[in-house]
Amino acid sequence: MKLAVLTSGGDSAGMNAVVRAVVKAGIIRGCETWVVREGYEGLVRGNGDDHKAEKPAIATHKEVHLKDESFVQNLRFGDGELLRDGTSDYTSGRSLKGRYIVRVGWDDVRGWFGVGGTLCGTARSAAFRTPEGRLAAAYNLIKEGIDALVVCGGDGSLTGADVFRAEWPSLVSQLRESGKISEDLANTYGHLKIVGLVGSIDNDMSMTDMTIGAPTALHRICESIDNIESTAFSHSRAFVVEVMGRHCGWLALLAGVSAGADFIFIPERPPEEDSWEDAMCKMIQRHRELGKRTTIVIVAEGAHDKNLQPIRADAIKDVLSDRLGLDTRVTCLGHTQRGGRPCAYDRILPTLQGVEAVEALLEATPETPSYMIGVQESKITRVPLMEAVAMTHSVSKAIGEKDFDKAMSLRDPEFHESLEGFYATSQVHPEPRLPHSQRMRVGIMHVGAPAGGMNAATRAVVRYCIAQGHRPFAVHNGFVGLLDDSVHQLSWLGVDNWMTRGGSELGTNRKLPDIDLGLVAAKFQQYNFHALIMIGGFEAFSSLDILEQGRKHYPAFNIPIVHLPATISNNVPMTEFSLGSDTSLNALVDACDAIKQSASASRNRVFVVETQGGKCGYLATMGALATGACIVYTPERGMNLNMLRDDVKYLKKRYGLDVKGKSEGRIVMRSEESSSVYTTKMITDMFKEEGGKLFDSRSASLGHTLQGGIPSPLDRARAVRLALKCVAFIEREHVALLRQSDGPRVAPPESAAVITIQGSSVKWVPVQEMKEHADMVNRRGKSEPWANVRSLIEALVARPQILGER
Ligand code: ATP
Residues 425, 460: contact at Cβ < 8 Å? Predict the structure, then answer.
C-alpha cells in the first residue's frame, strides 16, 4: 500500500504526532509513506508533471546491515527537515517548491512529536470543494501511485474525505475517458481507502470523547485563566474570558470546571431564565456576598441566549460593571489557544489513533465504510465516518432549532457530568437540598503521597456537600491528624482557590489506621462522622481495607467509606486512571522535552531518565510513549543482562544509522524500582562505556518534580466528576443504613468501596473484591492495563527491525 497523510482545516496540537505515527506505523506494516502539504490544497496542486522524486545520498555514521533491508530504504528521504524548518535546503539545493505530495521516511518525522500546529501545513481549500478540484486531486494521487489516505482535520475535512471517496470511481472513469490515465491505472486504482482522524481544538465531533488538540487548547486556556486569577485577586476584579467554540461549549465548560469559574456561557445550554443578565448577576452577587474577591466568567465564542441572540464578552462586561459595579476586564484568548507544545494526552492519543488508522486502511475493502478513528474513555474505536459527521451536524441543527435538550443529549456523558459538576461547584443555594434526616457529617482525608487533583476533588466534595446540607470536615494530615484532633469544618469560600493548587491542602500522611484502630474508632465517634471520603493512593486503599475489616469490632466504622484514587504512580488496582497521573505525565513530558533538547544539542547523548512510581511502571511506560523514549525499564518486567545486551546493541545500530553530524538525543526511561542491581547510574555508565565514539550518556532523576506544580486541567476536571459521584455514593449508602430496623446498624461490605475507571465506565468496586486483584506485596494491581504499550514503544523506535527480529 502507498499511503499519504494530510492535515486539513484549523490546525491543532497533536497533528504532527498523527503524521509521525502514521508514517512509522505505515513503514512497519510495509507501506510506502507520503505526506501531503497544505491539506486538500496540496492534493489539488500535486507535484507537477515533470517532477521526479529523487532520493538524496546520505552518509550515515557506520555501515549498518539489517535483515530488513526495506527498513533501511525507508529510513529517510530528507524532506522532513525542509518541512520542519519551513525552508529550502540551500546547501544541497533541495526545495519543496512546487512539490505538495512528498515521500517521507522514518527519520523524516523525527522530533515532530513535541511541535505544536502542523508541520505539513494546512489550508481551507476552495478548489477541493469543486468537482474539478477533486478530479485534479485524484489524478495527482494516482500519478504518485497512492491508494490510501489518512485525513486529520475537523468535521469539514472529514466530510470532504467522504465526498472524495464516494466520488472516487467516477473520478477515475473521467480520468480514463479523458486519456489522462491508462486503462491499467484505472483498474489498479479503482478504490481509494480513506480513514479520518479528528484534529480539532473544539472537541466538537460526535462519537468520540476527545478530538486531537482539544486537551492542549484546554491547557492553554487554563494557564491563561490561572494567570488572570492572580491579578484579578489583587485588584478584586471581574474578568470575562472569551474562548473558542462556535457550536461546541466543551472548551468553555471544561475551562469553567477546571478553573473554578463563577459563570459560563455555552451554546448547548443557555441560561434558562428569560434574562441571562439576571441569571448571571444573581449568581455573582451571591459569590461576592460570601466574600469572593475575584469573578471569572467564561464565554464560548458561539454563546447565545435561549432565543439564539449572541452573548458577547463586551456585553457581559457592561452588565457586570453597570449592575454590580465590578471593575471588569475582557480577555479574548484567540489564537493563543491553538498554539504551543502538545500536552501528554495530545501525544499519546494521536499516536494510538495513528497506528489504528493504518490498521484500518490495511483492512479496508470497497465494501467497508470509511472509518473515523475515535476514543471512548481509554479505548481507541473505529466508527463510520459519515455517521459521526452527521451526528455532529445534528447538534448544531438542534441548537439552531432551540432544542437545547436534544443538543445536550447528543453530547457524550462526560459533557453532562462536567456541566453538573460545574453547577454543583459554582452555585450557592439559599436552602440545602436534602431533608434534615439525610444530612451527614462527612470526613474528608488525604492519605499517602500528594497528587495533582486532590485539592480539586476536595473542593468539589465540600461545595456539593454544602449544597446538599451536609457538613464537610477536613481531617488534616491523615490518620495521625485525626488522632491529634486536627479536624475542622470546611466552608464554601475556604476552598475557593483550591482548583489550581498542587500538593495537598489538607496535609497528607502515609500512616494507616492500624497505628491505633481503637482510637481511630473513638475519634470517628467523637466527631460523629456519618461517612468518610479518603483521597489518595495505595495507602488509602489499604486504609479502607483495615477500616472495613475493623467494622466487626468497632461499630463507628459502620458508615459508608470511599476511596477516590489519587496517586502519580497510578498503582491502585482495577482503575485505569488515578487523579494526579495526568499531571505527572505532563511534568514528565515537560522535563523530557528540555532534556531532549540538551541531549540533541550535543548530538549524540542518551539520557537515562529515572521516574518515580514505586513498584508500578505506569508512569515510566506511558511517559516513554508520550516522549518517544526508545527503551523503558519497569519493575513489572525487571531488568537482566540479556535485556541490557540487546539494548546496547540496539543503541549502537541505531546511532550507526544516523546521518553524520545529525544524530539526535535519545531517552531511556527507567522506573525507580526496576532493579536494585542495574541502577540508573550503573546503566548510564554502561551506555557511556559501550557507546564509544557513537554516543555518550547522562542521567536525570526527576524525583518529586513529577508530582507536578499546578494540576493539569484533565486531572482537575476528572477530580470534580469523580468527587460528585463519591458524595452521591455515600448519600445512597447512608440512606440505606437509615432504613435498617432498630438495633445497631451494620454497614454492608459494598459500602466500603473504591471508585474506578474501567474502559468506558466508572465503576464502584467493594474493597474486599479489589483486594483479590491487588498485589499487596508490590503495592500494585495484579494485571497491568498498559502492559501492551511496551511493544508499541519498541515498534515506534523500530526495535524489531534494527535488532533483526524480523
Ligand atoms: P475546523 O474544525 O478547524 O473548522 P474543518 O475540517 O471543519 O476544521 P473546514 O474549513 O470546514 O474545516 O474544512 C476544511 C476543508 O475541507 C475545506 O477547506 C475543504 O477543502 C474541505 N471540505 C469541507 N467540506 C467539504 C465538502 N462538503 N466537500 C469537499 N470538501 C470539503
Answer: yes
Distance 387 CA to ligand 1 centre (A): 16
With contact defined as beta carbons under 8 Å apart, do 451 and 568 qualify?
Answer: yes
Mean pLDDT for the chain? Answer: 93
CATH 3.40.50.450 spans which residues of the chain? 2-210+342-395, 433-578+711-775
**2-210+342-395 has which CATH code?**
3.40.50.450
Its pTM stands at 0.94
Consult the annotation and say whether 338 binds a ligand. yes
Residue 123 grid coordinates: 489550508
pLDDT digits (tens, 9 = 90+) for 179-210: 999 999 999 999 999 999 999 999 999 999 99
- 367 labelled as ligand-binding? no
Cα distance between residue 444 and residue 139, in whole Å: 65
Residues in contact with ligand 1 by the CB-under-6-Å rule are 8-10, 40, 124-125, 128-129, 153-157, 159-160, 163, 200
DSSP-H helix ranges across 236-363: 250-259, 276-290, 313-324, 345-363
CA nearest neighbour of 754 among 580, 584, 533, 555 = 533
Enter the C-alpha cell of residue 247: 457550536
Parts of the chain belonging to CATH 3.40.50.460? 214-337, 584-706
Other Cβ atoms closer than 10 A to 608: 26
- C-alpha span between 314 and 245 (Å, rounded): 17
Architecture per CATH, 214-337: 3-Layer(aba) Sandwich (3.40)
Q: Containing H/E element for 142?
A: helix 131-144
What is 433-578+711-775's CATH topology? Rossmann fold (3.40.50)
Q: What is the pLDDT of residues 599-621, one digit of tens each?
A: 666 668 999 999 999 999 999 99
Rg of the chain on CA atoms, in Å:
28
Instruction: Point out the catalytic residue in the list 68, 107, 202, 647.
Output: 202
Nearest C-alpha neighbor of 532 from the set 520, 516, 514? 520
By CB atoms closer than 10 A (0-12, 13-18, 19+), residue 792 is middle
**Could you read off the pLDDT of 690-706 as tens digits, one per residue?**
999 899 999 998 988 88
Q: Which architecture characterizes domain 584-706 according to CATH?
A: 3-Layer(aba) Sandwich (3.40)
> Nearest to residue 665, comparing CAs of 727, 581, 596?
596
Torsion of CA 614, 618, 619, 625, to 10 degrees: 150
